[in-house]
Amino acid sequence: MENLIKSVPEPTLKRLPQYIHLLKKLKEDGIRQISSNTIANELNLDSIQVRKDLAVTGVVGKPKLGFDLEELYSALLHTLNWDNSTDAFLVGMGSLGSAILGYKTFPEYGLNIIAAFDNDEEKIGQSFAGTEVLSSDKLTDMIKRMHINIGVITVPANEAQKVAQQMIDGGIIAIWNYAPVHLKVPPEIIVVNAQLSQSLGVLTHKLAERLRYLNL
Amino acid sequence: MENLIKSVPEPTLKRLPQYIHLLKKLKEDGIRQISSNTIANELNLDSIQVRKDLAVTGVVGKPKLGFDLEELYSALLHTLNWDNSTDAFLVGMGSLGSAILGYKTFPEYGLNIIAAFDNDEEKIGQSFAGTEVLSSDKLTDMIKRMHINIGVITVPANEAQKVAQQMIDGGIIAIWNYAPVHLKVPPEIIVVNAQLSQSLGVLTHKLAERLRYLNL
């Protein structure tokens, strides 16, 4: 399976969790085979698109029978590396940071947030969702010592660049950035932006469009 | 300005918040003019892409001087309808729902979550971030009475479809869905998915790719 981890376009990667969520549910319902047409119908996607997306897993469906559901599910998890557990540190214990730390589903997605950091003296030493909050002063050193690869940034915009630098100094390779700011990082560092505003803009734009149409 | 609200491709819409965040910062720094090249450099984007993206606002830059920053900023807000305030209801007061309710920046993005709902008797009547949690039984009726257009879903996957239906029955037009499930809705309903797993999959895939490369 190792050679399945190869370059997949980002829009495809973003659709894969949908397939995983659907297949998980169907597995629980006892379904064992599924066609790409059924998947396309269930998710309201184009079936050619679905076939292309699923092809990145390397799993081949059988004519008429479709895919072995268990095999396809495992291969999708493997493509996103969700069949492995990766340790991560989170910095910024505001409301969003606390929510992410408390989100019970991330371990299913291979993400294991094992420590949280903040620079607020009142938060340091407190425990959230079973994890003690540590001082941000220790961040770089602990990343080095524990060989952490993923950093999650949930600090305010004006602190995010500094935190990113502390993470990179410690040896972080991949940053999941929730702060509403563009991080400047060396080209070898992976930054994936996860600002809630991205999808909110799509929503508010489309709603305005729809309301104007309805008023016509 | 009204006629500026027209169909814009989704990938463009998702990039607009980046420009807004950058321009907001530069405005605070006292900058008044900016070229698309400078914006492209600051955000590490292709400058042709930036020019195309900004063209959807209808604002035209001056040769050599570039854009009037204030004008461009206002037009970007207008394109996303973030210069208007839209009332929304949120359903699901778990850790993510509480975080979203407590997120102080949403009003800047035109989103005003004015009521929160849950079906957990222990949460009903409690107050989060200044908003009282109401019983989900009241959801449909209150949407009708208050003419609410946006519904935010932060319930677990297995409850999301039911909540979506209650929202639609009340007259909700646009759903911001955080539940890891595909919602089945009539074609006139706008659903924008905001599952955190979407961007996490990109992160964990790219990290696995990078680690394999480094091990070579």
Key traits:
homodimer, 2 domains, Rossmann fold, alpha/beta, Arc Repressor Mutant, subunit A, disordered N terminus, 45% helix, 216 residues
Rg of chain A is 20 Å
**Quaternary state of the chains:** homodimer
Biggest interface, CB < 8 A: A-B, 69 and 69 residues
Order of strands in the sheet with the most strands of chain A?
5-6-4-3-7-8-9
Q: Any low-confidence stretches of chain A, pLDDT <50, length ≥5?
A: 1-5
Silhouette of chain A: globular
Please name the CATH architecture of the largest domain in chain A: 3-Layer(aba) Sandwich
The CATH topology of the largest domain in chain A is: Rossmann fold
Which secondary-structure class do the elements of chain A indicate? alpha/beta
Annotated CATH homologous superfamily of the largest domain in chain A: NAD(P)-binding Rossmann-like Domain
As for the number of domains of chain A, it is 2
Mean pLDDT of chain A: 92
Report the major sheet of chain A.
Answer: 7 strands, mixed
Q: Which CATH top level class of the largest domain in chain A fits?
A: Alpha Beta
Helix content of chain A: 40-55%
